[in-house]
UniProtKB/TrEMBL annotation:
Gene3D superfamilies: Dihydrodipicolinate Reductase, domain 2, NAD(P)-binding Rossmann-like Domain. Homodimer. This is Aspartate-semialdehyde dehydrogenase. The keyword Magnesium does not apply. It comes from Flavihumibacter stibioxidans.
């Protein structure tokens, strides 16, 4: 299968190449794509070097599928051009997520919505993906009424510039700033820009995308998203109110049996998910499972996942795997 990776030189694009190789995706020809300033550079895949090409050359190469991780404006301009050429686009930006004509997919939950006619498929926000993977089996059983989530998000979610800022600050070196404020030894309660309602775009992504992926507009979601000086993954404190009461042992059993979920929940031995343990893993890790004693039918949980993998690259590759398996590419 001929595969294009658009944004191949970025953090997520690099991770996409790594995940394609690790999961033995049937790549017969790789077409790495990046901005004009990166054309001619080389990327490595499966021990070989491949030259980065332009968007126009990539379309001319007629790949079967294009994994996009090049930002929203690039995707808005170029994804339709790839789609018009018959190329299936799996887009990691926010550009198409809430377009009612485009599927927003987490394979463990709603891959069944995909058809051969879907030429632009949206990959959800990283913090949304890990939350809904853990919530979905519980929603099926108990019915979710309301979710209150606070996130603790890795600097890798911002990109190379943010990683460099953190490392520079740790070394006491002056450098380019990805954030308005220092991130080392600090916490920044803002991810993306503020909207008129006082929430950030990242927070509203979690609200809106959760409803679309889980196909239930009745689920109430409120979010606070926070950037912390961490590498390896995003963490989330999630408070879930259900329609029906639950049994904690059954909750653990449902989560343990859910695809893509690993339960790490042994407080007596200080066992719980942490980003350093999720780093370079594809699973969503869940722990700190406990009843909210302040109101009925409500659960507290802690969810951790590698935001560059399941939160971005792996989810996109899993969508491609599903399409290939179903003969939709």
């Amino acid at each position: 299968m001929k595969v294009a990776v658009v944004g191949a030189t970025g953090l997520v694009g690099t991770k996409m190449l790594q995940v394609l190789a690790e999961r033995n995706f049937p790549v017969t020809e790789l077409v790495p794509v990046a901005s004009e300033k990166s054309v001619g550079k080389e990327v490595e895949y499966m021990g070989k070097k491949f030259r980065v090409v332009s968007m126009t050359d990539a379309i001319a190469a007629k790949p079967d599928v294009a994994l996009f991780s090049a930002g929203g404006s690039t995707s808005l301009e170029w994804a339709p051009k790839f789609a018009e050429a018959g190329i299936t686009v799996i887009d990691n930006s926010s550009a198409w997520r809430m377009d009612p004509t485009k599927p927003l997919v987490v394979p463990e939950i709603n891959a069944d919505v995909l058809t051969a006619n879907d030429k632009i498929i949206a990959n959800p926000n990283c913090s949304t993906i890990q939350m809904v993977v853990a919530l979905n089996p519980l929603h099926k059983k108990y019915g979710i009424k309301r979710v209150v989530v606070s996130t603790y998000q890795s600097v890798t979610g911002t990109g190379v510039k943010a990683v460099d800022q953190l490392m520079n600050e740790r070394k006491g070196v002056e450098g380019e700033m990805a954030y308005k404020y220092p991130i080392d030894l600090n916490v920044i309660p803002q991810i993306d820009v503020f909207l008129d309602n006082g929430y950030t775009k990242e927070e509203m992504k979690m609200v809106n995308e959760t409803k679309k992926i889980m196909r239930d507009d009745s689920i109430l979601v409120t979010a606070t998203t926070v950037r912390i000086p961490v590498m390896g993954g995003h963490s989330e404190s999630v408070n879930v109110e259900f329609e029906r009461d639950f049994d904690l042992a059954e909750v653990r059993s449902l989560l343990s049996a859910a695809p893509g979920v690993v339960v790490v929940d042994d407080p007596a031995n200080a066992q719980y998910p942490m980003p350093r343990d999720a780093h370079e893993k594809d699973e969503v890790f869940v722990g700190r499972l406990r009843r909210d004693e302040s109101q009925p039918n409500t659960l507290n949980m802690w969810i951790v996942s590698d935001n560059l993998r399941k939160g971005a690259a792996t989810n996109a590759v899993q969508i491609a795997e599903y399409l290939a398996a179903k003969g939709l590419l």
